[in-house]
């Protein structure tokens, strides 16, 4: 089904840029520190307000409620105020972007908070031409005491400790400073705009081996008892199958896998239950296992089992009471398996492949440095005061470390110029960078359940980067909507992957992708899907509890939650990817067909000569093949990719997808669409599945025909095949193999005038063999 209208042509390509990384240093010969050499230099005026002393009383009560106001042109920042304190301490930093400075003097006022009008206490003025410059790793600027003056410049009572300097975003004070760009953000929303570094919680696979139970007090009822065990860990609920022993001493010996996160806040709760009716279970006993006491293992060794006494809780007057009047117990083997890597991302673009246990980590092989520079032409994401606006920030995720840039207020071309670093343990990993619109500038209570809008994301695979080379590109930010793919803007990044040891990095290509426990004691596909879902839920919940929170919708977008859901567009893309993989084999087959048909006689004759040489000298076959592959690789080196891969709309079939297919892709589960729409989609899915079913059936038919050669299902065909096999064995025994190979090859390459258009005898014989299709209903 084709799109009924053409898509507008947009520039979805990757563009190489030439930013002025490092900025060439500050005027006067100072240079930016090497830790910020992947971003453009941004200069700021910093004012650190430390404390004040001997402030005069202004209220009629003889007290003072002081605060400080720092003013530079139209920008004004204020500290918090103190009640009735003449020697307050603030220790707050204010930063003003040099690009937006429109004044030559910075004014620092000390005022007294009042209900009607704040009283002026004193002020300190600084000429910007006299402000010193500082760049780390220089020591921090030492604050000094300054005597307050009135508006006429005469000294008054009170002193203020300040430090004023010109610096860059490399300054230690930058992350926690009040920024003039965010002057319109209220105080309770300031926390949501600052840059932060987050760490994912340390995740473990918890293996619960439910072995057996003894002396259960079963519910009296006719028939055999149906007893099972339910396991609960922080909302993760699994249950065993019904015991086959059907007695008061049931046996299961079943493994259940869950995900646990440090610090272990939840306890493992196991309940033995009996099915007494349809959807009705009775709890026979419970046991609570603190995870702090669970044994940790790094390999496949067997953990010692343990018997736990079951306790039954009954409700008395609305309160839970422990009733211990029976000796039922359960036999368990519980362990925290640290030899696995807990998958919280799609395996296609994982950023970390290390096991949970730190003792099993290999040494790092290098450093990944990312400079988040700017974004251009971002679309407006929301309406404020009757006009469109965008408050953009970036999130980057690699390994356990998440970083979040500061939010640039009301700008479609934000400049972050922030640089971050990660240790790299495996080059075959992916870093993900997402751009979002901040919808929580008014504080948590005023957000009314708003979610941060996604603007787009970029993935960069480290193995596609050359070591010690700085890649500076502008990546398109593409988002798929129900109306089609949409370019939301561009983000400019600088990336460098540095290797500490080339030999160690090359050695990683010979190691298994995942830790060895995944191969020695593998988990099933359904277990991995369930555990991945639980892991993403735990990570998103923990990060959303940080301050400022990394919100659930942001984490799920970065981790590609829901990527496995059905999509007609993605199915088409995967089919054409498969066809592209086999296109080389198809082209080779067509080329051999043209040789057999003598389309180019010279090529065919040369192929005859090459074939004869390889048959007569078979020891040349493998060297010739590998030399051919080597020459192809050297030839393709001229056209090697010069840019990192990026989101490809054509490969994703995003630019040709029908609107109804996209609407189906974004539909929730279960569906919320009208019945007639669901019926049409179901019919379309049945049509596609019918074609797949036909292809699978044809493949099965060919395989069954091979099996029927010796199965005597068709006795005449099997007898003919056995006679042929006996004759072939005798002929091949008395005839040298090279003669047989030459005669067979030359027969296959014979001239078209010696060919028949009808199918060959072996093919006719094969197609007449029986299959099991006639036994299908």
UniProtKB/TrEMBL annotation:
<dbReference type="Pfam" id="PF08372">
    <property type="entry name" value="PRT_C"/>
</dbReference>
<feature type="domain" description="C2">
    <location>
        <begin position="26"/>
        <end position="146"/>
    </location>
</feature>
<feature type="domain" description="C2">
    <location>
        <begin position="185"/>
        <end position="308"/>
    </location>
</feature>
<feature type="transmembrane region" description="Helical">
    <location>
        <begin position="605"/>
        <end position="637"/>
    </location>
</feature>
<keyword id="KW-0677">Repeat</keyword>
<comment type="similarity">
    <text>Belongs to the MCTP family.</text>
</comment>
<feature type="region of interest" description="Disordered">
    <location>
        <begin position="1"/>
        <end position="26"/>
    </location>
</feature>
<keyword id="KW-0812">Transmembrane</keyword>
<dbReference type="InterPro" id="IPR013583">
    <property type="entry name" value="MCTP_C"/>
</dbReference>
<keyword id="KW-1133">Transmembrane helix</keyword>
<feature type="domain" description="C2">
    <location>
        <begin position="349"/>
        <end position="475"/>
    </location>
</feature>
<protein>
    <recommendedName>
        <fullName>C2 domain-containing protein</fullName>
    </recommendedName>
</protein>
<dbReference type="InterPro" id="IPR047259">
    <property type="entry name" value="QUIRKY-like"/>
</dbReference>
<keyword id="KW-0472">Membrane</keyword>
<dbReference type="InterPro" id="IPR000008">
    <property type="entry name" value="C2_dom"/>
</dbReference>
<dbReference type="InterPro" id="IPR047258">
    <property type="entry name" value="C2C_MCTP_PRT_plant"/>
</dbReference>
<dbReference type="Pfam" id="PF00168">
    <property type="entry name" value="C2"/>
</dbReference>
<feature type="transmembrane region" description="Helical">
    <location>
        <begin position="719"/>
        <end position="749"/>
    </location>
</feature>
<dbReference type="InterPro" id="IPR047257">
    <property type="entry name" value="C2B_MCTP_PRT_plant"/>
</dbReference>
<dbReference type="GO" id="GO:0016020">
    <property type="term" value="C:membrane"/>
</dbReference>
<dbReference type="InterPro" id="IPR047255">
    <property type="entry name" value="C2D_MCTP_PRT_plant"/>
</dbReference>
């Amino acid at each position: 089904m084709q799109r009924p209208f053409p898509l507008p042509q947009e520039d979805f390509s990757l563009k190489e840029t030439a930013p002025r990384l490092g900025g060439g240093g500050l005027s006067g010969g100072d240079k930016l520190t090497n830790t910020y050499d992947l971003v453009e230099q941004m200069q700021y005026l910093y004012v650190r307000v430390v404390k004040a002393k001997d402030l005069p009383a202004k209220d009629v009560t003889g007290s003072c409620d002081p605060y400080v106001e720092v003013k530079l042109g139209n920008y004004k920042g204020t500290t918090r105020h103190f009640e009735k304190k003449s020697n307050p301490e603030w220790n707050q930093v204010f930063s003003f972007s040099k690009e937006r400075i429109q004044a030559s003097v910075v004014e620092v006022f000390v005022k007294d908070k009042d209900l009607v009008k704040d009283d002026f206490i004193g002020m300190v003025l600084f000429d910007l031409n006299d402000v010193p410059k500082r760049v780390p790793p220089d020591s921090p600027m030492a604050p000094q005491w300054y005597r307050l003056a009135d508006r006429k410049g005469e000294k008054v009572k009170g002193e203020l400790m300040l430090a004023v300097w010109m610096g860059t975003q490399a300054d230690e004070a930058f992350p926690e400073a009040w920024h003039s760009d965010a002057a319109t953000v209220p105080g309770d929303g300031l926390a949501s705009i600052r840059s932060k570094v987050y760490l994912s919680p340390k995740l473990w696979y918890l293996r619960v081996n439910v072995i057996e139970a003894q002396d259960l007090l079963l519910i009296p009822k006719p028939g055999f008892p149906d007893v099972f065990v339910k396991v609960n860990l922080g909302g993760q609920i699994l249950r065993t199958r019904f015991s086959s022993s059907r007695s008061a001493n049931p046996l299961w010996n079943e493994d259940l896998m869950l995900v646990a996160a440090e610090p272990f806040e939840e306890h493992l709760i196991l309940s033995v239950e009996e099915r007494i009716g349809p959807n009705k279970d009775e709890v026979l006993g419970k046991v609570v296992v603190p995870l702090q006491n669970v044994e940790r293992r790094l390999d496949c060794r067997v953990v010692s089992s343990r018997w736990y006494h079951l306790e039954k809780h009954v409700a008395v007057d609305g309160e839970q009471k422990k009733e211990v009047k029976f000796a039922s117990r359960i036999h368990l083997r519980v362990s925290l398996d640290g030899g696995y890597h807990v998958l919280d991302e799609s395996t296609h673009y994982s950023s970390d492949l290390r096991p949970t246990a730190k003792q099993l980590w290999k040494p790092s092989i290098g450093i990944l440095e990312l400079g988040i520079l700017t974004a251009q032409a971002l679309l407006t994401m929301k309406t404020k005061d009757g006009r469109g606006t965008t408050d953009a920030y970036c999130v980057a995720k690699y390994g356990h470390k998440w970083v979040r840039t500061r939010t640039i207020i009301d700008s479609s071309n934000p400049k972050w110029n922030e640089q971050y670093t990660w240790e790299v343990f495996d080059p075959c990993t992916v870093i993900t960078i997402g751009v979002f619109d901040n919808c929580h500038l008014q504080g948590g209570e005023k957000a009314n359940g708003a979610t941060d809008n996604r603007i787009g994301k970029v993935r960069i695979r480290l193995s596609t980067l050359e070591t010690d080379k700085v890649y500076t590109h502008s990546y398109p930010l593409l988002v798929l909507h129900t109306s089609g793919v949409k370019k939301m803007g561009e983000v400019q990044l600088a990336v460098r992957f540095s290797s500490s040891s080339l030999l160690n990095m090359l050695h990683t290509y010979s190691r298994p992708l995942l830790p060895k426990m995944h191969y020695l004691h593998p988990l099933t596909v359904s277990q991995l899907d369930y555990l991945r879902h639980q892991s993403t839920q735990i990570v998103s919940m923990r990060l959303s509890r940080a301050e400022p929170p990394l919100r659930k919708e942001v984490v799920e977008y970065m981790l590609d939650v829901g990527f496995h859901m059905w999509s007609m567009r993605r199915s088409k893309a995967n089919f054409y990817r498969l066809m592209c993989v086999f296109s080389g084999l198809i082209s080779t087959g067509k080329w051999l067909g043209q040789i057999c048909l003598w389309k180019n006689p010279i090529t065919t004759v040369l192929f005859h000569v090459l074939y004869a040489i390889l048959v007569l000298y078979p020891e040349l076959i493998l060297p010739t093949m590998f030399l051919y592959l080597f020459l192809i690789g050297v030839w393709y080196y001229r056209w090697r990719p010069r840019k990192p891969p990026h989101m490809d709309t054509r490969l994703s079939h995003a630019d040709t997808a029908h609107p109804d297919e996209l609407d189906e892709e974004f539909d929730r589960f279960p569906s919320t669409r009208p019945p007639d729409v669901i019926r049409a989609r179901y019919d379309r899915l049945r049509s596609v599945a019918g074609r797949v079913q036909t292809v699978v059936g044809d493949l099965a038919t060919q395989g069954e025909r091979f099996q029927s050669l010796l199965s005597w299902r068709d006795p005449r065909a099997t007898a003919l095949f056995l006679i042929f096999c006996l004759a072939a064995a005798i002929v091949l025994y008395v005839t040298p193999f090279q003669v047989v190979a030459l005669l067979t090859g030359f027969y296959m390459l014979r001239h078209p005038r010696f060919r028949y258009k009808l199918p060959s005898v072996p093919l006719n014989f094969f197609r007449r063999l029986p299959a099991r299709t006639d036994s299908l209903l």
